Every structure is written in structure tokens, then in C-alpha cells.
Amino acid sequence: VQLQAFGGGLVQAGGSLRLSCVASGLPFSDYALGWFRQAPGKEREYVTAISWDGGSTDYVSTVKGRFTISRDNAKNTVYLQMNSLKHEDTAVYYCAAGITMGNFLKNSGLEYWGQGTEVTVSS
Three-class SS of residue 78? Predict the structure, then answer.
């Protein structure tokens, strides 16, 4: 199983980026997908998750209204559209897969992780 995240980069505050995470080797549409991030010197934190069919989403309060998670089960890909980026969004972003969204909300039982993609927001 592989989760490959990409799309990170350097962007000015107020700008946008779209992250992608492509999965292989797992029944993609059976899994909830989501994103975590880890800023320098801080613990990894939950950002957002989406249910297996895209019908349910959840966001941490600090990104609500700015970030949008979506998925394309035909392409085995989950996306994270990040708008109105702030300096505090600077982090390495990791995608992950779990059987339910509860795995993300509890940060427990997540089965697979991607390698991370770095996002730097200049202020």
C-alpha cells in the first residue's frame, strides 16, 4: 500500500495551494481519507477528513471555511484545496487512510500514511 502526497510548495500569505494524495494497493473507496499536518517544533495535528463516498467531511476549526477536502474514487485520489493561506498553515502535510472518519477524529487506528508534502506560507 502506498499513499503519495504532492502539491506542496512556497506560497505567499493569502494565496492558495492544492494538495493531492494518490493511493495504490488498497480498496480506495472502502476507506475514509484525511490530512494531518506537523509544523516545525509542534506535534502532528488533525486537519480534515472525508468519508468513503465523499458524503461527509470534517475540519479542524482553524481551517474551516478556507480548506476543502474532496476525493475522486475513480482516480484513487484525495485532494486538499487550501485557500487564504496563513503563515500558521506552514507545515508538512500528511495524508492518511482509515476505515472510518472516527479514526481521524480520534487520531487512532489509521492504517496507512503518506510521506508528507511541505507547505510554506510566507508572511
Answer: strand
CA dihedral 89, 67, 79, 42 (to 10 degrees): 30
Report the relative pairing of strands 9-12 and 117-122 from DSSP bridges. Answer: parallel
Pairing, β 77-82 against β 67-72: antiparallel
Average pLDDT for residues 47-75, to the nearest whole number? 97
Q: How far apart are CA 93 and CA 115, in angstroms?
A: 9
Q: What is the pLDDT of residues 11-20, one digit of tens each?
A: 999 999 999 9
Query: What is the pLDDT, as a whole number, of residue 123?
Result: 87
Task: Provide the 10 A C-beta neighbour count for residue 10.
Answer: 12
20, 79 Cβ separation under 8 angstroms? yes
